[in-house]
Amino acid sequence: xxxxxxxxxKYSPEIYRYAFGLTLNRDEAKDIVAETFARALxxxxxxxxxxxxxxxxxxxxxxxxxxxxxxRQTLPTDLDQVAHEPQFDGDSENRDLLLQTLxxxxxxxxxxxxALLLRAQGLSYEEISAALSITVNAAKVRVxxxxxxxxxxxxxxx
Length: 158
What we know:
Layout: H1 4-23, H2 26-43, H3 52-71, H4 79-83, H5 86-89, H6 95-107, H7 110-120, H8 125-132, H9 136-156
Helix pairs in contact: 1-2, 1-3, 1-7, 2-3, 3-8, 7-9, 8-9
């Protein structure tokens, strides 16, 4: 990989939001970002990943999976702390809806949360398929199904 600094500046916030969205742990998310870029420096293969971004999310996905495997734990329940993350402070006029949505998202299976968060980060279905090691069609189906669940939950909670 050439020009590491611009790549880091461009993608590290996205990788952090993805890792934090799954782990809900600031320190762990920061560690995942650091480890993602450390591994990316030594292993990028443009033939295996459609974009650098997909490659980085593939690494982050594996690190998040390892995090849960190592700790054998569920998501933390102190979501009030999550709502005070910098990216949520200015974006949410309705903190209660944000907290309710976060609680709902934590109830989804990890594979659905991952697909949703990757799509929310703006990854294409091709990039999601590369990051999760699934087909493009499977990525589309996962995102579609989780969006339906989210829409149904939202309709029932208005």
